[in-house]
Write a structure and sequence with these properties.
The protein is mainly α. It contains five helices and no strands.
């Protein structure tokens, strides 16, 4: 793993070159928004290339279905939390805590936790309750 540092150069150089090229074409046409899109596209490419390079060095079996569950449950909760604005601090905190509870309930409804994780949380809850 330590001798694989040569992979870092293409992971950063290719997106940097793409960023310059996209800036050249997008900034004259779209100004600041063109620059921001160029940067976003370049960073997404860099993240993808870094992931692919790291997979070649050290493969990790991700649980893609579980990650998708987290993402698709989190997305509407985050949107609600950012769209709805409550000025009073106490009500705002209560609203955010309720969103957190909804998030946890949705993950539970989608059977996010496997049997071992559920058993661990039940044991933890029982130990904390008896203290």
């Amino acid at each position: 793993v330590a001798k694989k540092m040569m992979m870092i150069f293409p992971v950063t150089a290719i997106p940097a070159g793409l960023n310059l090229l996209l800036n050249y074409f997008l900034i004259p046409a779209y100004g600041m928004m063109g620059a921001s899109w160029a940067t976003l596209i370049s960073y997404v490419l860099m993240a993808f290339l870094a992931w692919r390079a790291s997979e070649r060095v050290y493969h990790i079996d991700y649980e893609w279905l579980r990650l998708l569950k987290i993402f698709f449950v989190m997305l509407p909760v985050l949107v609600l939390g950012s769209v709805i604005s409550i000025d009073q601090f106490l009500y705002s905190v209560l609203f955010k805590l309720s969103l957190l509870a909804v998030y946890a309930a949705l993950l539970y409804a989608l059977r996010f936790l496997d049997e071992e994780e559920s058993l661990y949380l039940k044991n933890l809850y029982n130990r904390l309750r008896h203290r």
